[in-house]
Amino acid sequence: MKVIVEKAGAKINLGLRVVNKRADGYHNLESIFQEVDLFDTLEISQSENGIKFVSNDPELGEGENNLCIRACQVFEEETGIPLHIQIRLEKLIPKGAGLGGGSSDAAACLRALNRFYGAGLRRGDLIRLAARIGSDVPFFVVGGTALVKGRGEVVMPVLHFPKNYRVLLVYPNLHTPTPQIFKKFQLGLTHYPPNVKFEAVICRVEAVKDFKLVFFNDLEKVTKSVYPVVNEIKERLYSVGAEFASMSGSGSVVFGLFEDRVEVSSESMKEAFGDFWVKWVKPI
Ligand code: C5P
What we know:
The protein is of the alpha+beta class. It has ten helices and ten strands. Residues 26-27, 29, 134-136, 151-152, 178-179, 182 line the site of cytidine-5'-monophosphate.
């Protein structure tokens, strides 16, 4: 039996700048996305009839809220191929965490379907389909480090960028509602002048210690005001030696970047983050 396996990596937003609000209700963003080596795994095989979905996560149903199902629909519409497949998804990336897990699963699903049916869709086609599924999905067609603009559909790979660091992900088991976080965001409340573009300063980033001078997340202030735990985690990450700490996406994960040579003892980890889900990952 033919089985196609695709890995779906998580992301962090090293920086996220909200540029403006658009007429369609979305926001134009400028963000540096970084893929990390925490993966969901997606397997596709033939089904007897239609699209079947199974997962180790019982909360994931077969409706349109499941972004893998959305991916199947847009692929079917684009190619005209009637799908008879079983999707098996092993989820390890926490949901509602700002790590892009669902979006990455959708991109992996598009790649897998393209291979399974030999549909010959190119990267540009996949990005266009990805943008119909969700704002973060186009990035995962490309992966690695990328400057992302517009609603998320403009993805420019950043080729030479420091990767000699480890990332500590801290997740306070809290689903932050992305639409509400964006809704509460007010441009005037950012503490950085809106004309500071990551695109203009990214060439100055040569080492992990430079990240703090350049990157920020405009949504962090909003999420912190509703969920103070986000700020507590950020402070604790600095207290255990992070070079840079920030929230990812609209939260609730806060990540800390540590130079490769820096050791964090398991006692101080336990003391700082004992109640939370934590995971060490590496940038890809
Ligand atoms: O595109 P996606 O469904 O992932 O977006 C979720 C929500 O996040 C949107 O409904 C919108 O409220 C907000 N959003 C936004 N601008 C973006 C991306 C997301 O306002 N560029």
